């Protein structure tokens, strides 16, 4: 059995699992001594069982997950058992809701009060077949004092909060969990992919100024809008890089793998940036004559579909109400962000400044991974995988800090096991509240 690697600080080792439409990626890492993310191992496999971000074939998806996990485990020398999983797909929805909690007295507000307020949001009645994935607090109002971002430590009797609630289809969530179970793994947390990507390519200054994250994947394009450091809007558009490949396949009458190579090597989002006389020679099928394809015509095909995707993104920006508050502009990431001249096309259609988001600023210098693997990780293609890792590390550190601060002799992992290995600490906590049981601070902190 492989042993886990530890640091001087004994920083927890966390695993991210990105189940994408084109690839399944596993990242293993921990917090380094200079507060960056040290990647210990990476594994990837072709994703043949996922369509537009949703599992369409359980067994094929399981095989790809196992392959990617084995590769990452061998590279990192870590026995991978628990993973932080990304979720996306057209079924993802988001709503705004307001919650109120009246406390018994006006003593200091604790983390427990916020958790109780969050728990109320999980009791919302949703349409049949939908389940809440995330409840994200935005702004708090304490005794009619609005605009409070972190109320812990404040005195107050009446707590109100605006929440951004993200939900998805129960069947899609269950299928992901079934794939994880069949791969003999456990789900530590289920994380919306645009939230994960935002951790990898945005900093606090971006989120505070107002920014739109656009993650262009193989099957979906994920959108997340931040303003004043708070998430304001999320959406998943069921169009991505794969549909561009299909367009090239149909428009140029070539094989799918040839269409993918044409897109990657010669593709452009702006036809006018290409010369009329540039021609690509594509080998013919079974001894037939090679086919000549104009680079400009190829760009016209790509531009038409990318304009459609960007129009959908722009519609989400306008419907959010934050179109004129985006000082940080648009940040595009994901595999689709590597398309040439895409930044110019986005700026032309939306009139908003745009740049490509790379996850490299969070990565520590690495002497463990081969140089070519480490350099590849800096690509926008790995934004979600690295973001899942960052979210997992943050969750571990926040919980460890909370329990150490309150003198708890138990570690987060011990508390999680005490609650339920399958559900994790916060879901165990939610179950107690839902069952109508009382819970005091000492029980919450793991002292009982």
UniProtKB/TrEMBL annotation:
SUPFAM superfamilies: Actin-like ATPase domain
Mode of membrane association: Peripheral membrane protein
Transmembrane region(s): none
Source organism superkingdom: Bacteria
Residue intervals of the SHS2 domain: 14-201
Localization of this protein: Cell membrane
GO biological process, one term: FtsZ-dependent cytokinesis
Keyword check for Cell division: yes
Pfam families: FtsA, SHS2_FTSA
Annotated signal peptide: none
Gene Ontology cellular component terms for the protein in this record: cell division site; cytoplasmic side of plasma membrane
Key word Cell division present: yes
Record family assignment: Belongs to the FtsA/MreB family.
HAMAP family: FtsA (MF_02033)
Protein name: Cell division protein FtsA
């Amino acid at each position: 059995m492989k042993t886990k690697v530890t640091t001087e600080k004994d920083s927890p080792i966390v695993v991210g699992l990105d189940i994408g439409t084109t690839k399944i990626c596993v990242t293993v890492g921990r917090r380094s001594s200079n507060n960056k993310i040290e990647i210990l191992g990476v594994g990837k496999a072709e994703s043949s069982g996922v369509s537009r971000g949703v599992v369409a074939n359980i067994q094929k998806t399981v095989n790809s997950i196992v392959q990617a996990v084995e590769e990452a485990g061998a590279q990192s020398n870590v026995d991978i058992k628990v993973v932080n999983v990304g979720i996306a797909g057209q079924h993802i929805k988001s709503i705004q809701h307001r919650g109120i909690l009246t406390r018994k007295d006006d003593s200091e507000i604790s983390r427990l009060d916020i958790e109780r307020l969050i728990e109320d949001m999980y009791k919302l009645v949703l349409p049949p077949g939908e389940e809440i994935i995330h409840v994200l607090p935005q702004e708090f109002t304490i005794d009619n004092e609005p605009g409070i971002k972190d109320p812990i430590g404040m005195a107050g009797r009446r707590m109100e909060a605006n929440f951004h609630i993200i939900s998805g289809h129960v069947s899609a969530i269950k299928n992901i969990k079934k794939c994880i179970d069949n791969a003999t793994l456990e789900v530590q947390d289920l994380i919306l992919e645009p939230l994960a990507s935002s951790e990898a390519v945005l900093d606090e200054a971006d989120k505070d100024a107002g920014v739109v994250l656009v993650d262009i994947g193989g099957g979906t394009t994920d959108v997340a809008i931040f303003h004043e450091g708070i998430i304001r809007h999320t959406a998943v558009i069921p169009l991505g890089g794969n549909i561009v490949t299909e367009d090239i396949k149909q428009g140029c009458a070539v094989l799918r793998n040839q269409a993918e190579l044409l897109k990657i090597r010669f593709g452009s989002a702006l036809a006018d940036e290409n010369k009329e006389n540039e021609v690509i020679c594509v080998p013919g099928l079974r001894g037939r004559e090679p086919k000549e394809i104009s680079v400009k015509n190829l760009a016209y095909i790509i531009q038409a579909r990318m304009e459609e995707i960007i129009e959908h993104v722009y519609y989400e920006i306008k419907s959010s109400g934050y179109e004129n508050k985006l000082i940080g502009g648009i940040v595009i990431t994901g595999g689709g962000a590597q398309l040439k001249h895409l930044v110019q096309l986005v700026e032309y259609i939306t009139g908003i400044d745009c740049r490509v988001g790379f996850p490299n600023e969070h990565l520590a210098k690495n002497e463990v991974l081969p140089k070519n693997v480490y350099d590849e990780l800096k690509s926008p293609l790995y934004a979600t995988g690295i973001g899942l890792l960052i979210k997992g590390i943050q969750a571990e550190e926040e919980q460890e800090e909370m329990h150490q601060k309150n003198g708890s002799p138990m570690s987060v992992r011990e508390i999680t096991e005490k609650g339920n290995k399958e559900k994790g600490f916060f879901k165990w906590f939610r179950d107690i509240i839902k069952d109508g049981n009382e819970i005091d601070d000492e029980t919450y902190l793991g002292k009982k």
